[in-house]
Write a sequence for this structure.
């Protein structure tokens, strides 16, 4: 069959067992999704019809692929197998090819059976079949084209679906690798009525089963499908070559929406280390903890986020299956390696988060228990406007490679297998966003009282002004500002208005840039406190 030695794998047995169930009539519609280069065509499109024809040479088969040449290739391989000395010596007495119809595209048996090869989009020659097999209906290179993708789905619905000789008994099989959420596999799964044999390259903890009782035999998450052929080095190379998104579809059979889910891929901005601010307004570490470090447990995710003005930067990350001691150390390490002062450490008060808080609150300042409100999706949706506005910045992949898997999880949510990084991110962004709220008059008075009362605050601020050489007058005179600065506060961030008018981005003062504005008294914080003191006495 093949010019290379046979390499056994349990997935070969899984495909064969489910195809036998199709032959017995136990499964009428079977969808098989499996990574490329795992012998799927050899098993389904070459060997299965040759095996069935041993006892049922009257069966009529239709085979289709995205390219007719591929369907013809497997038809030729099947014909060669049947004509081989091995096959003829064992089952040559069961049937023979009809002499007048033995071509590459179509062969017939002397019992009335046939095999026809076509391409998706073809007419299927008007023939019917007892077995309709679609092997790789999409060209992966064209899968992103909605026009080409829709053409395949329309052909399947309007042409291929009508080719059954007997709708009650005809079996249909699709075998392919996933490459898009809107591919044929997604289409038929949405329609329903298909048995799905899904075999990802890396086990993800989901014990998938089929109606015959078959289930994925792997036990440990990350366990490989066919390590004899696709070991860790080959899988790592596939990830590098394809990228996270294509690998998720073709190898894990878990395609990601091209635009994203709750968070869209196009919303994210990326930064380089050299462009990071020298100082952030606030920096927090956000943690989503797990119960145990079992291979079936959720991951622990810790993220370091910084806020500068309206922008939020993801600075660092920890992600892995960690037990309680390892989680404690990971929190310490994330804080220690930050070059910025960490203002708060947010820990979701679930799983072992409560225990983490009780241990570390006497060691690390700013440990805050967070009790999330609403569901995961509602929290993610609450911060989605920040991302859509371009206010969330992520590190460049060539500087922080871990960001590729993070983005994949972000845009896959809520359909992703894991969502711990999403939880940590939404927790941090919601908390940082809440700290951007401006203080009203009542809040201002509370802050003054918290700093020792009005008199103490006034005295401290007076002392600071004297030490910094400020004028001791109650009303200070602001010198005439240059043409490119606000005359009230000296700010140089100016918004251009019609004509020569500009508006200050800090205080909102509007003035003309045509000349120097007159000197006018500025309302200082001393004035604010004096007026506050007066209000307090009066009320």
């Amino acid at each position: 069959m093949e010019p290379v030695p046979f390499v056994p794998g349990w997935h070969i047995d899984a495909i064969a067992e489910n195809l036998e169930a199709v032959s017995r009539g136990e499964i009428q519609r079977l969808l098989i999704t499996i990574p490329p280069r795992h012998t799927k065509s050899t098993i389904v499109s070459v060997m299965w019809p040759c095996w069935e024809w041993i006892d049922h040479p009257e069966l009529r088969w239709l085979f289709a692929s995205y390219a007719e040449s591929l369907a013809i290739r497997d038809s030729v391989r099947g014909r060669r197998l049947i004509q081989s000395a091995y096959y003829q010596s064992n089952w040559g007495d069961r049937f023979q090819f009809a002499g007048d119809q033995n071509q590459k595209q179509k062969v017939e048996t002397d019992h009335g059976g046939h095999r026809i090869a076509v391409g998706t989009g073809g007419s299927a020659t008007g023939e019917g079949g007892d077995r309709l097999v679609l092997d790789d209906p999409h060209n992966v290179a064209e899968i992103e084209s909605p026009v080409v993708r829709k053409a395949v789905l329309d052909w399947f619905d309007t042409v291929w679906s009508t080719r059954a000789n007997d709708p009650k008994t005809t079996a249909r099989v699709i075998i392919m690798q996933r490459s898009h959420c809107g591919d044929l596999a997604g289409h038929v799964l949405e329609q329903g009525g298909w048995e799905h044999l899904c075999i990802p390259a890396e086990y993800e903890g989901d014990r998938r089963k089929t109606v015959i009782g078959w289930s994925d035999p792997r036990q440990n998450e990350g366990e490989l499908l066919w390590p004899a052929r696709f070991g860790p080095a080959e899988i790592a190379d596939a990830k590098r070559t394809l990228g996270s998104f294509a690998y998720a579809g073709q190898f894990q059979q878990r395609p990601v929406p091209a635009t994203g889910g709750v968070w869209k891929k196009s919303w994210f901005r990326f930064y380089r280390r050299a462009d990071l601010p020298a100082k952030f307004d606030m920096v927090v570490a956000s943690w989503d903890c797990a119960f145990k470090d079992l291979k079936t447990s959720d991951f622990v995710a810790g993220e370091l986020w910084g806020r500068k003005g309206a922008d939020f930067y993801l600075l660092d990350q920890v992600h892995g299956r960690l037990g309680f001691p390892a989680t404690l150390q990971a929190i310490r390490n994330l804080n220690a390696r930050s070059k910025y002062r960490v203002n708060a450490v947010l820990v979701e008060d679930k799983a072992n988060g409560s225990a983490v808080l009780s241990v570390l609150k006497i060691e690390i300042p700013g440990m805050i228990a967070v009790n999330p409100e609403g569901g995961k999706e509602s929290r993610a949706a609450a911060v989605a406007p920040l991302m859509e506005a371009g206010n969330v910045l992520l590190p460049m992949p060539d500087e922080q490679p871990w960001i590729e898997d993070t983005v994949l999880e972000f845009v896959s949510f809520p359909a992703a297998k894991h969502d711990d990084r999403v939880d940590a991110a939404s927790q941090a962004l919601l908390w940082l966003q809440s700290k951007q709220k401006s203080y009203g008059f009542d809040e201002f008075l509370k802050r003054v009282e918290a700093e020792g009362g009005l008199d103490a605050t006034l005295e401290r601020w007076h002392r600071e002004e004297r030490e910094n050489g400020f004028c001791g007058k109650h009303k200070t005179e602001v010198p005439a500002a240059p043409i490119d600065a606000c005359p009230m506060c000296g700010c140089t961030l100016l918004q251009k208005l019609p004509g020569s008018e500009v508006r200050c981005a800090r205080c909102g003062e509007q003035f003309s840039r045509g000349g120097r504005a007159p000197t006018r008294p500025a309302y200082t914080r001393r004035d604010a406190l004096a007026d506050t003191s007066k209000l307090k006495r009066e009320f």
In short: Residues 470-482, 515-523 have pLDDT under 50 and may be disordered. Residues 232-250 form the longest helix (19 residues). The chain is about 35% helix and 20% strand. Residues 267 and 388 are 5 Å apart (CA to CA).
